[in-house]
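Listing 4. Sequential folding, example run.
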Amino acid sequence: MFYRRILLLGVLESYGGSILHNKLQKVLFLVTRKQGVPSFDFVPLEDGYFSFQANHDLAALSKQGLVIDDSGAKWTLAKDQSFLDDLKEEDQLAIEQIQCEMAEFSETELNRYISERYPDLTKDSQRQKQPSEERAFFTIGYEGISLETYLNKLISSEVRLLCDVRSNPFSRKYGFSKGQLQKACKSVGIKYHHMPELGIDAAQRSDVKTKDDYNRLFDEFEKVTLPKRNRYLIELCKLVEEYGRVAITCFEKEPNECHRSRVAIALRKLPGWDVQQQDL
């Protein structure tokens, strides 16, 4: 079992085997702040911090019969089984410390406690920032990062629209298939738009293995495919004009190893394009 799931079960056990959904997220947030490498990442939502991965893991644990989603309000251990002893000593101590610090807190007090300790990460702090009026265009890949880290990159850059330029918006990595990503973006106030016309068909990638193969593929995409799809580049321009701050996304971490960099180059060649571009 993944260690992060054992941590979830350990937190549940420490609270007598049952805890409200929202409270579990907040406890988990505080516990992971004490870890050198956090087991979960979080994004700021209206009612506090939230980890999509933790919620996904809890759903998986429910399918395995280890936890019960009690009336959609509480997570409850399904079996009388101990998990705390399987955790690292420092994580056991972190859970114990958080329990002691929050023992008498109401939900309002708990929210205030978190916002005072982590003021730069709260939804309120995001609202207090003066929204940027400067138009900007970004590219971002999700390789090697969590959904939460990915969303926080978009949030910090004040991206208002995410354009998915994958031909096939499916991913084996949790959170990045079309439906999951669209839902996650909506939860943090970012619109999602799929533009498969600016993607590369999977069939074209089937025999691509080396760096030279990829360079040839991307060169052909830039010089042959994109000119034929100029109207979609113009549509993307109009979206930048409408939303002000737009990002395009695909898988690869490095933009020069991804076709999205060629989309960005094509945009710069369009008449009147004067938008600042940045790779996140």
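-- end of first protein; second protein begins --
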Amino acid sequence: MIDALKELYEASLHTQGHAAFYRLPYQNSFHGCISSTIIDASDEVEGFIIRPFEPNHKPKVIPNEIYFSYETELKLNVRQQNEFTDAFLLYYRGNPKKATPSAFYQSKNISFSTRMAYLENIVKAQQEIGLGHFKKTVLSRVAKFHYTQTPDVMDLFFALSAKYPNAFISLISSPFWGTWLGASPEILLQQSAENYITVALAGTKKTSTGSLFTSKEEEEQNIIKESIEHTLASHHIQSHSSQRENFDTGGLTHLKTTIAFKAPGGSRLNLSEELHPTPAVGGFPRKEAVHFILQNENYAREIYAGYIGPIHKNSLSLFVHIRCMQWLPDYALLYAGAGITSGSEAEAEWEETENKMKIISDVL
């Protein structure tokens, strides 16, 4: 299996294809698509959606020019015959020992937050909360992780899959976006025909401590739940929320409520845009909280905290793109954020981002 998927990945690099490899939570099969281009998302297009965090972006799709799956054997489906797919197949079916770059990457010029600057931003956010400008925002940061030896990107993908069985494991490899890997625990929207679910996920504890969630974390999770319910109700959608539960994502435990509802299948992309960004990554109220993020974080999130996932004719599975890294030749960029409310303790929020980054750094 590993060799078969590595050969697909290598062929996508050689032909400058846009590729997405993924494994859904609790599944053993791997899937993905490869394409010569990226296009605007629509209900008629099947492929892999990528939607950056920033409000002025629209969801794009890597379409299923080539679609593949692997459970017990590789199934390769070339859905469009064109110059790109011909070149891809010619290379893929040739000599398996090839020399290609290990990944696409984008040069970065990021001003990294110091610990002190991040703590100061938290204090600033709490001052805004005290003035009534918003109830919650989410402050994130990016950190370098220097490799002792440059890792194989596909090996990282398989390592994440083995370590986090209940996460959405993804590898995005694109001349446009660069190379990203992630292990997201957070569903934005799942749809099958007219049946939908989304989740309210917040609060973070190291599983090993066994400590209880505080009232701050319960309030933070409740803000997300009520915001999602209000968004659905504003579109005259009746929803049903489960009891809140503890959700162990492999080292970290969160508070989780599953929200189920019915809606026309054709409304799914509109719903995903209505829900994004949820207060879990953007804050509440959304407009004011996101404005604070854009004004005070010292980098562009790009596809961190956006949403990603496969879209098919009658179903889709979209996940918030968190617990992720961006691959660069000499180091990885690790991304993590923490929800800031009036009850936040700055040091504890910094520590939360450290723990979230370990989800990825533990496999590096």
